[in-house]
Amino acid sequence: VQLQASGGGLVQTGGSLRLSCAASGRTFGIVMAWFRQAPGKEREFVAAVSWSHTNTYNVDSVKGRFTISRDNVKNTVFLQMNSLKPEDTAVYYCAAGPIGLVPGNKAEYDYWGQGTQVTVSS
Fold it and tell me: Is the N or the C terminus of the chain less surrounded, counting Cβ atoms within 10 Å?
């Protein structure tokens, strides 16, 4: 599976961005997710969505602001980010892994995209 992330940029506090991650290869059934990594910090889980879209998961800090979704026809996962804060500034990575993984455990994801920078100015 190959993953290509896009959609990052510079936005003011309170603004919105929509990240996309296009997947290619054997994508049937995989869980897709977004992680982020700020300078000097560990890569952290943001959100994940199951293949059937019946299950989504979000870290508490983004609940009510970020929404993950996927289009299985286009093999693309999206992260709609609203009400952005300076602490959301990071490189955002999309990831893919097998059914049954623990969504927040980055070690269980087999495939990673190249990352897209999101910068929120105060």
Answer: C
- Nearest by Cα to 19 from 72, 73, 84: 84
Give residues with Cβ within 8 angstroms of 110, minimum separation 6.
1, 96, 97, 98
Tell me how many helices (H) and strands (E) the chain has.
0, 11
- The first and second tokens of residue 96, run together, are 């893919």
Percentage helix, strand, coil for the chain under 3-state DSSP, each rounded to 5 = 5, 50, 45
CA–CA dist 4, 22 (Å, integer): 5
Check: CB of residue 58 under 8 Å from CB of residue 68.
Answer: yes
What does the pLDDT look like over 2-45, one tens digit per residue?
A: 999 999 999 999 999 999 999 999 888 899 999 999 999 999 99
Q: How much is the average pLDDT of 33-59? A: 91
Residue whose token pair is 């290509």 = 4
